[in-house]
Design brief:
By secondary structure, the protein is α+β, with helices and mostly antiparallel strands. It has a single domain, classed as Nuclear Transport Factor 2, Chain: A (Roll), CATH 3.10.450.50. It has a 6-stranded mixed β-sheet, with helices on both faces. The N and C termini lie far apart (31 Å). The protein is built from 4 helices and 6 strands.
Length: 145
């Protein structure tokens, strides 16, 4: 019997977390984040918390709960995902939603750079410029090799 890989499939974990958010399962959606995770949000992005990082216990949960409360409907889709090695991933994410009380849908596309530890996101940053995010992810992965 061949040895099974002990390396978690980061893309699968990321996809499952987005699917959980899309079906309203916040517990499953936030389970991808390490308990001490830091999440830097891009300026001008869809942030629903003040400041540029989420560091207090439960803040990432509060971010997702706040986002859910801000929209009558919201959905995330990973358009691209690349595991660059060294625990670094890059993805392009589209968020589509109908703001609460609004009549039209909005769409935001952003680059998402993550560093993983033990199969969970330890640090992440959104970039409004996808190519800037890609370059940042490549630099980070190179530093970690």
């Amino acid at each position: 019997m061949p040895d099974e890989s002990t390396t978690p499939d980061l893309e699968e974990a990321f996809r499952r977390a987005l699917e959980a958010f899309n079906r309203g399962d916040i517990d499953a959606a936030v389970s991808i984040w390490a308990p001490d995770a830091v999440y830097h949000l891009a300026a001008g992005g869809f942030a629903v918390v003040e400041g540029d990082s989420v560091t207090e216990p439960g803040s990432i949960r509060k971010l997702w709960e706040g986002l859910t409360a801000s929209f009558d409907a919201a959905e995330f889709d990973s358009e691209e995902f690349i595991d660059l090695g060294g625990g670094v991933t890059f993805s392009v994410v589209a968020m589509r939603g109908k703001p609460r009380g609004g009549s039209s849908f909005v769409e935001i596309r952003f680059g998402f750079v993550s560093s993983w530890r033990d199969g969970r996101i330890a640090r992440a940053r959104n970039y409004t410029d996808v190519e800037e995010a890609r370059a940042a992810a490549e630099r980070l992965a190179k530093e970690r090799r």
